[in-house]
Structure prediction request, 392 residues.
Amino acid sequence: EIGAGKTVHAAIRDGFKKAASAILDGNVTTLIAAAVLYALASGSVRGFAMTLALGIVLSMFSAMVVSRLLVNSLYGMGLKDAKYYGTKKERKGFPFVEKRKIFFTISCILLLAVPASMIFMHQTKGSALNFGLDFKGGTSINVPFNEDYSIEELDKEVEPVVEGVTKDSNIQMTKVVGGNNVIIKTRSLTLEEREQVYQAMADNFGVDTSEITFDNISSTVSKEMSQNAMKAVIIAVVCMLLYIWIRFRDIRFASSAILALMHDIAIVFGFYVVSRISVGSTFIACMLTILGYSINSTIVIFDRIREQLKTKTKNADLKEIVNDSITQTLTRSIYTSLTTFIMVFCLFIMGVSSMREFALPLMVGILAGAYSSVCITGTLWYTLKSKSKKKK
Prediction:
């Protein structure tokens, strides 16, 4: 708005006003997903949906109310020079539309690699996915340590020892109240592996192996819970499709956004297959996070396209509109993806193994979402729009 020649005061007013629709649409689509998940899912998935919804509402309030109040306060305190708010920089538009065949080819290769890797892993590993404790159960070992270890000490000292034997980072440890006993849950162990864990406890911590006990445990994520979560995701996607269709009055906007969303989820799913990261309750949380996050940058780009369509003539070049809209929102898309990626990367570097198993696929989802929003959604909308024009 400042670049359009408006005063700072007018730019603040109009900037927040024009951004409101993108903020509203981007957050409401995610809120729809959270509401459907809460209504249809159960257990930890329902709790995640509630947390997601609360975060969306608070984020929307801070974006539309708190940030406006802060910027207006800064302006009222005397910071009225445009240089404090950013000046317009002329950017050479990138031919996103003209390069769409390259982008579509890359996406097709990635998507085709998912079923191919599933077949390969099923043949070589016995299962396409590496299901963890929550889905297929495992072994519970009760270890009587000689001293009272803190949770932090268990994560840093005990967990790596167990992981070295099981070759699996999907390990859960719980302290027993009123003693030094710790319950260690791992994947199902063979007799030989169990004895190796016993010996490792004796060698590293001086535990008496004769006092160690074990049990076989069942899965905590039931088949019904998994099916309900899958149904909820499908219904949420359909509801998001209808909302975007109604708001943008164009089914091509809605279908492009949902196809890109499915593209991101499929890539992350493929990453789980290839990396052999354990699929547990964090798998559901990761997929739901991507479901809510990936669509935001897409909505911002579509909002800019919609805004330009209103101001341009009917004979305006659609290629130019799409390229300009993506270019104008590119900095915003990069900043939001980069700041989120940095936060999750810190979680990956500083977190324990189970936390890293959540953060790593999430980083892949952020990168896939940034790529699809910038390179796929706008160009896909243009392709659908052009084909419908040719038919007419």
